């Protein structure tokens, strides 16, 4: 644990908050269209209708805000899932929740020609819920009941199933393929503030409830029996936390598609920095998740410029080695 005292953690949190603001500003400034910090300042203080000012206000600012919100949501969802399942590999991506949300949106677009954001939102939540229930049920089969290994295998199976069904639907409808292919890779490009405004209330609810659950999650992490002996209503807490995961992961997928690895990487980095107290893990994870996705989005603009790669590809490049490390460390210890 790098930060041990309350003052150190408070100072670290303040630093991350300032750094997040700085990197979001950098996200607004840097990209294919050459702009400067002074141009960005003028775009918001003395708008003149120029092409650069329009890009800064209507393209890059929404992109920066959406990346920060999606990154924070996926990171907090990862913390909740790892605590609930006691599985170091748990995340919306590895447990098929992102894939379930993505499948529901693609199915609606291909089979029923649904195109409204509000419909996508509710369909994402529905798909995320179906995937979460499916993984839990599949991982509970057998004499040993629910175990981290069985949950991981069940999550991989559900993710593979839903991804295959998604690809099958896209093969049937080539028009829908053109519309959602970039979205399926995970991207915040081309999103508008109206898109975020429609999803943000659900994300905020998920963030607030997750923070309120922090002290109870500390008890839950000690084991169900210990938590029950201390008066915790374990079943109710798990249901509420699961609903938060569905809100956060479903909302994030509705905006940006199934962005992976944020939910795995960030909780482990946060615990290494501030320990296992969820009262610190939750807010730190939210900030670090936002920073990581905004930074990944900036890098995604420059790798093959003038073209861009989806930010989901960048998070996969960053997260895959970490996933392998956690998998070896987590399961070798058992």
UniProtKB/TrEMBL annotation:
Transmembrane segments: 12-32, 65-83, 95-114, 120-139, 151-172, 199-219, 240-266, 286-304, 311-328
Classification via InterPro entries: ABC_BtuC-like, ABC_transptr_permease_BtuC
Annotated Gene Ontology cellular component terms: plasma membrane
Chief location of this protein within or outside the cell: membrane
The organism's place on the tree of life at top rank: Bacteria
Gene3D superfamilies cross-referenced by the UniProt entry: ABC transporter involved in vitamin B12 uptake, BtuC
Database matches in CDD domains: TM_ABC_iron-siderophores_like
Topology in membrane: Multi-pass membrane protein
Coiled-coil parts of chain: none
Compartments where located: Cell membrane
Single GO MF descriptor: transmembrane transporter activity
Keywords, in A-Z order: Cell membrane, Membrane, Transmembrane, Transmembrane helix, Transport
GO biological-process terms attached to the record: siderophore-iron import into cell
Family: Belongs to the binding-protein-dependent transport system permease family. FecCD subfamily.
This protein's name: Iron ABC transporter permease
Protein's organism: Peribacillus glennii
Source taxonomy: Bacteria, Bacillati, Bacillota, Bacilli, Bacillales
């Amino acid at each position: 644990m790098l930060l041990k005292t309350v003052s150190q953690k408070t100072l670290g949190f303040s630093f991350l908050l300032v750094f997040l603001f700085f990197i979001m500003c950098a996200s607004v400034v840097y990209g294919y269209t050459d702009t400067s910090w002074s141009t960005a300042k003028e775009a918001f203080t003395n708008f003149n209708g120029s092409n650069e000012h329009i890009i800064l206000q209507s393209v890059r600012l929404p992109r920066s805000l959406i990346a920060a919100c999606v990154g924070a949501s996926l990171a907090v969802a990862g913390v909740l899932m790892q605590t609930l399942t006691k599985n170091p590999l748990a995340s919306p991506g590895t447990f098929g929740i992102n894939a379930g949300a993505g499948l529901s949106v693609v199915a609606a677009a291909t089979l029923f020609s649904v195109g409204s954001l509000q419909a996508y939102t509710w369909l994402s939540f529905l798909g995320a819920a179906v995937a979460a229930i499916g993984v839990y049920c599949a991982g509970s089969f057998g004499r040993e009941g629910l175990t981290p290994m069985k949950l991981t295998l069940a999550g991989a199976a559900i993710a593979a199933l839903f991804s295959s069904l998604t690809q099958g639907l896209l093969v049937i409808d080539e028009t829908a393929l053109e519309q959602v292919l970039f979205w399926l890779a995970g991207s915040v490009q081309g999103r508008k503030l109206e898109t975020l405004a429609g999803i943000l209330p659900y994300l905020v609810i998920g963030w607030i409830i997750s923070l309120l659950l922090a002290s109870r999650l500390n008890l839950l992490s000690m084991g169900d029996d210990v938590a029950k002996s201390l008066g915790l209503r374990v079943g109710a807490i798990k249901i509420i936390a699961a609903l938060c995961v569905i809100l956060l992961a479903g909302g994030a997928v509705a905006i940006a598609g199934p962005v992976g690895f944020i939910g795995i990487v960030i909780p482990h980095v946060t615990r290494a920095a501030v320990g296992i107290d969820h009262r610190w893990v939750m807010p730190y994870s939210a900030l670090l998740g936002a920073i990581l996705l905004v930074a990944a989005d900036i890098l995604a603009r420059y790798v093959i410029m003038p073209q861009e790669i989806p930010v989901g590809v960048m998070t996969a490049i960053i997260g895959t080695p970490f996933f392998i490390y956690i998998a070896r460390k987590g399961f070798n210890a058992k």
